[in-house]
Design a protein that fits this description.
Blueprint lengths: L2 H10 L13 H23 L4 E8 L4 E3 L4 E9 L4 E3 L6 E3 L4 E2 L4 E3 L11 E3 L4 E2 L4 E3 L4 E3 L4 E2 L4 E3 L2 E2 L13 E2 L3 E3 L4 E2 L4 E3 L3 E2 L4 E2 L4 E2 L7 E4 L4 E5 L2
Parallel strand pairs: 1-3, 2-4, 3-5, 3-6, 4-7, 5-8, 6-9, 7-10, 8-11, 10-13, 11-16, 12-17, 13-18, 16-19, 17-20, 18-21, 20-22
Antiparallel strand pairs: 14-15, 22-23
Helix pairs in contact: 1-2
C-alpha cells in the first residue's frame, strides 16, 4: 500500500477499504488530512477527557455540541462531523462502537426535558450515519454493526399521546417503545422509521420510505408505508 493510501486511512479510520489507490495530489491530501484528521483529532483529544469512556482516536467536527458527555462512551476511531448536536442525557446513556462514523449535521438526543429522560442509544461497530440524520432515542434505539444510513434519515423512538380531544396534545404525554436496527442494514436517504419498529439484519429500506411496521431480515422495502418488494438472495 502506498504512503498516500496509508495516510488517507489513518485520517478517516483504519476500517476503510480502499477499492483503488488514492488519486489526489500531495497538497490535496495534506489539506484533507488537516480538515478531517488534524483539527478534528485535536478537538477529539479534549473531548475524550470529558466522556465516560473512549477507546482511542476520537475525531470531533467544528461547532459540534456534546451535552452530558459523562453519559457517552465511544470506541476507537469514532468520528462525529461538523455542526452536530448530541445530548447524551438518558437513563442508560449512549454508546458508540469502534469505527462509528457520524457525518455532518447530526441531531441526536433521548429527551429535550430533564424531568423526562429517555432510554438511550447504542450504535454497533463500523456503522455509518449519513449527513443530517436525526436520532430521537426516547424509547431507546439499538443499531447493529456495519449498518449504513443515507442522508437525512430520521429514527423517532417516541410518539405523542393525543386520544383526549378535550386536552392539549402537549399535556397528554408520550409513549415510548423503542427502535431496533439489525446488523448489515442499509437505510436510504430521507427514510423515516417510527417508534416500535424492528428492522431485521440484512434488510434494505429504499429512499424516502416511511417504516411503520417491522421489517423481516433480508427484506427490501419501499414506500409509505414501507412494504416488501423482494427478498435479498
Amino acid at each position: 500500500m502506498s504512503l498516500k493510501s496509508r495516510l488517507y486511512k489513518m485520517a478517516i479510520g483504519r476500517n476503510v477499504r480502499l477499492a483503488a489507490p488514492v488519486d489526489v495530489s500531495w497538497l490535496e491530501l495534506l489539506q484533507f488530512l488537516w480538515a478531517r484528521g488534524g483539527r478534528a483529532r485535536l478537538r477529539g483529544l479534549f473531548t475524550a477527557r470529558r466522556l465516560a469512556g473512549c477507546g482511542g482516536r476520537l475525531f470531533v467536527g467544528r461547532r459540534t455540541q456534546i451535552l452530558f458527555p459523562r453519559r457517552l462512551t465511544v470506541g476507537r476511531n469514532v468520528q462525529i462531523g461538523d455542526d452536530s448536536y448530541l445530548n447524551a442525557y438518558a437513563l442508560e446513556g449512549m454508546r458508540f462502537g469502534d469505527h462509528v462514523r457520524i457525518r455532518e449535521g447530526a441531531w441526536i438526543q433521548a429527551t429535550s426535558t430533564l424531568d423526562q429522560p429517555g432510554v438511550g442509544l447504542w450504535i454497533g461497530g463500523e456503522t455509518y450515519i449519513g449527513p443530517q440524520c436525526l436520532l430521537g432515542a426516547g424509547g431507546g434505539i439499538r443499531i447493529g454493526s456495519r449498518v449504513t444510513f443515507g442522508a437525512g434519515v430520521h429514527l423517532l423512538a417516541e410518539n405523542h399521546s393525543f386520544g383526549d380531544g378535550s386536552r392539549p396534545i402537549q399535556d397528554q404525554g408520550v409513549t415510548r417503545s423503542g427502535i431496533t436496527v439489525g446488523d448489515d442494514v442499509w437505510i436510504g436517504n430521507r427514510v423515516i422509521v417510527l417508534d416500535g419498529v424492528t428492522i431485521g439484519a440484512g434488510a434494505v429500506v429504499g429512499a424516502g420510505s416511511v417504516v411503520t411496521r417491522d421489517v423481516e431480515p433480508h427484506a427490501v422495502v419501499v414506500g409509505n408505508p414501507a412494504h416488501v418488494v423482494r427478498m435479498r438472495q
